[in-house]
Design goal:
Largest sheet of chain B: none
Distance between the termini of chain A: 73 Å
Shape of chain B: elongated
Radius of gyration of chain A: 30 Å
Number of strands of chain B: 0
Strand content of chain A: under 5%
Structural class of chain A: mainly alpha
CATH topology of the largest domain in chain B: Rna Polymerase Sigma Factor, Chain: A
Oligomer: heterodimer
CATH class of the largest domain in chain B: Mainly Alpha
Structural class of chain B: mainly alpha
Distance between the termini of chain B: 60 Å
Radius of gyration of chain B: 19 Å
Number of domains of chain B: 2
Largest sheet of chain A: none
Strand content of chain B: under 5%
Helix content of chain B: 55-70%
């Protein structure tokens, strides 16, 4: 196209900002169309900052796309770091949430049409949903980001509590909705919330000694036995009598106190294994 | 890797649109040096230049399929970069725009008359007339005519009101017209 090309002296002066407006503009117009001169100007530009910039570009384009939970949390005012760590919890993945919705839906259907046995099934599942969510929210067995979280200068207690809050916010409304679909148990459909919250607090308090999963398993087994025997005796809703509800509330309160006292022991999670 | 390096820019862009990071690295090696030199002539903050270069290639990664497939990839890249520079400098005054150098030095690399026309910028009458403009007016001519920015964008880049850009450009054109007419007479 053109036989005029920049020489090394001109390129060097241009790169130094020393070529003057007219020569500079000429060089710029020429560089737009001449691959050869573009290649040669690289010898006159310091490569060190360019390599550093490339490293930044590489970092930025390789960051995985942020998920729906993360974007939603950020919009709700949670900082980006918190949102990322919260959203990495297995119990906040879409597959978990949809599985949870399906389980509770079928439990509610069973409770609505299956008589006392259906109510027992609902009562069996509903309070354990947030417990399972918390158990699967943190710990070496379930969290792919666990080692990262341990090594990071980020308090484990804060992470566990943030994830617990997220689990409650995401799972309780779903379960509550499922319970309200059941016409036969107007009061029971709400009162299971008390044991659910108490159990969650107990799991958190227990996590200061053992893994959340182990605590939740023991608690879950106990609950299954209680609902099972109440159901066999007469009425599954017997696990929700006023006296027992008060007991749940007291247990939950004690668990919260224990958690407050022992919260620094959360950081040793998993190391006891 | 060798195959990637032998490919032309449009082919690399196509590969990049498909998520090929090696293709972008090759494009970066080809274009980052001159882009950084050209940006440095417009903005004397190395941090701002680094940010703009980073933004440009991240934008390229996200929007490589927007390349229409005609013209020079280099010109397209400069278009992205100069617009990124404008938005980077928006509302900030820590990065000062360099005044253009005043004196044309070496004439040894002067192009032939035919090539002057091809290059668009000449040492002839228009060239000397341009040199007679004040640095402020020349900066406006450079931003609007050579870098292809709108009045508003040029105003942001130079840190002056849009009306000032218009006035200076108007005056610059009047000066050029006068000088060229004077030379003809």
């Amino acid at each position: 196209m053109t036989t005029w090309h920049t020489d090394d002296d001109l390129l060097a002066r241009y790169a130094r900002g020393d070529a003057g407006p007219l020569l500079g503009a000429s060089v710029e117009q020429h560089l737009l169309t001449c691959a050869g001169c573009r290649r040669r100007i690289a010898d006159h530009v310091d490569p060190t900052p360019l390599d550093a910039i490339w490293a930044r570009i590489e970092d930025q384009v390789q960051v995985p796309a942020r998920g729906a939970v993360e974007r939603w949390l950020t919009r709700a005012g949670v900082s980006e770091t918190d949102a990322l760590l919260v959203a990495r919890a297995p119990s906040l993945r879409a597959s978990w949430l949809s599985g949870l919705a399906a389980t509770m839906f079928f439990a509610a259907v069973g409770a609505a049409w299956g008589g006392p046995r259906g109510v027992a099934l609902f009562l069996l599942l509903a309070p354990l949903v947030p417990v399972a969510g918390v158990a699967f929210a943190y710990g070496p067995d379930v969290d792919p980001a666990y080692e990262t979280a341990l090594a990071a200068p980020y308090p484990a207690a804060r992470l566990l509590l943030l994830r617990t809050a997220a689990v409650l916010v995401s799972s309780l409304p779903l379960t509550l909705l499922a319970g309200l679909l059941i016409p036969a148990m107007s009061w029971t459909a709400v009162s299971w919330l008390l044991p659910a919250l108490a159990f969650t607090a107990v799991v958190l308090a227990g996590s200061t000694w053992a893994r959340p999963g182990a605590v939740a398993a023991v608690l879950g087994a106990g609950w299954v036995v209680a609902v099972g025997s109440a159901s066999r005796a007469s009425d599954p809703a017997a696990v929700l009598t006023p006296a027992l509800l008060i007991a749940y509330a007291v247990a939950g309160g004690v668990a919260v106190l224990v958690l407050c006292v022992r919260i620094r022991h959360l950081a040793r999670l998993g190391s006891s294994s | 890797m060798r195959a990637v390096q032998a490919q032309g820019d449009p082919e690399l862009l196509a590969a990049l649109a498909g998520g090929d990071l090696a293709a972008m690295r090759t494009l970066y090696d080809r274009h980052a040096p001159w882009l950084s030199a050209r940006l440095t002539r417009r903005c004397n903050s190395p941090d701002a230049v680094a940010d703009v270069l980073q933004d440009t290639f991240v934008a390229l990664w996200q929007g490589a399929e927007r390349w229409r497939g005609d013209g020079e990839v280099a010109a397209w890249l400069w278009g992205i970069a100069v617009h990124r520079l404008v938005s980077r400098l928006r509302g900030r005054r820590e990065a000062l725009v360099l005044p253009l150098e005043d004196i044309v030095g070496n004439r040894a690399a002067e192009p032939s008359a035919e090539e002057r026309v091809l290059l668009g910028i000449e040492y002839g009458d228009v060239g000397t007339a341009l040199l007679r403009l004040s640095p402020e007016m020349r900066a406006v001519v450079q931003a609007t005519v050579l870098d292809g920015l709108s009045t508003r964008q040029a105003a942001r880049l130079l840190g002056i009101p849009a009306n000032t850009v218009k006035t200076r450009l108007h005056r610059a054109k009047a000066h050029l017209r006068h000088d060229l007419a004077g030379d003809l007479a």
